[in-house]
UniProtKB/TrEMBL annotation:
This is D-serine dehydratase-like domain-containing protein. GO terms for molecular function: D-serine ammonia-lyase activity. It comes from Myriangium duriaei CBS 260.36. GO terms for biological process: D-serine catabolic process. Residues 1-100 form the D-serine dehydratase-like domain. SMART domains: D-ser_dehydrat (SM01119). It comes from the Eukaryota. PANTHER family: D-SERINE DEHYDRATASE (PTHR28004:SF2), ZGC:162816-RELATED (PTHR28004).
Amino acid sequence: MTVVAEVCSVYEERNESLINAGVLALSRETGDFPGVAQVRDHIRKDWVVNRVSQEHGVLTYVGKDNRKATQDFCVGAKVELDVQHTCIVGAMYGWHYITDEEGIVTDVDFPCKWW
């Protein structure tokens, strides 16, 4: 499961980016990789959501080379995030887009709510 978020701000001096997805969108759970989510893009895969508030997350770099937030992100850009725990994340959304291997939407799922 992935979540699409938007970059709200880029902080050159801290080498971080603020996104509009926090605890409510991504959960607080950690797991197989650092942070609560990581950018799915293969070029930016070493950017992770390392800190979260209720509605925002902060992308920080955990790679070994010297990538800069200003070269990878701009305000308004969309980022696709792999999340740690899909059951928690999935419960927060009223529908889920089902995609094929190329990322093309093939169906929409409306999960059972209010059990």
